[in-house]
Design brief:
The chain has 223 residues and is of the alpha+beta class. It has nine helices and four strands, in the order ααβααβαααβαβα.
Length: 223
Amino acid sequence: MNFTIHHLPFTIQIMSLIDSLSWRYAAKRMTGNKVSADKIDSLLEAIRLSASGFGLQPYKILVIENPELKAKIQPIAYGQPQAVESSHLLVFAAWNDITETQIDTFIQLVADTRGISTDMLGDYRGAIAGSLLGRPVEAKRNWAARQVYLAMGTALAAAGELQIDSTPMEGFIPTKLDELLGLEAMGLHSVLMLAVGERDAANDFMANAKKVRYAKEDLVINL
C-alpha cells in the first residue's frame, strides 16, 4: 500500500505527459489569437530548464510578437502561414563559436549558483574545454545546433502540457533570417523556429487527423 501511494503522483504525471503528447500535433494553420503571457512565460521557463551538453546552453531564444516582423519572416519561411498566424514566433539561435570566455562565464555561473569556488570546478571546466575548444569552428557550431534540438524537444512537450498549439519549423532560409534579425552581430545563427498559438481547426486539414507513429515494438529494440 505504501508503495502504491508513494508512486501515485509519478504515475499521474506520466499519464498527463502522454495525454499531452497525444493531443499535440504540428498545427498547419493558426487563428492568430494570443496565448496568455503566463503561458508564454511557463513555456520559456521550461525551455530554460531543458537539458544541454555540459549544461552549457549554447543558444538564445528570440521571442517575436511584432506582426510587421513576422510578416517579413514569412517569405523567408517559404510562405508558411504559421509565421504570421502564430501568437508568438520563437527563434532558436545557436552560438557561432564556443570560446574560453564563454566557458569561464558558465563556470562562474555554476560557482555563484551553488555557492562554491571556481577552483573547485577545475575538472569540470577542463572536461568542457577539452571536449569542445579543440574542434574546428564549424564542428562547434554543429554541436551547439544539436543542443538546440534538445531544447526544442522540451519546448514541444511543454507546449503540449500547457495546451498551447505549436509548429516546429526547419523550413526557412537561415542566412536571410540571420540577416533580418542581426544575429551575426550577436554571435548567433538561426537553427529552428517554433510557432505557438491556437490551432485553426476549421481550416487545418490535420487538426482531426489520427496521429501516425510506429508501434512500440517496431520502434524500440530491447537488447
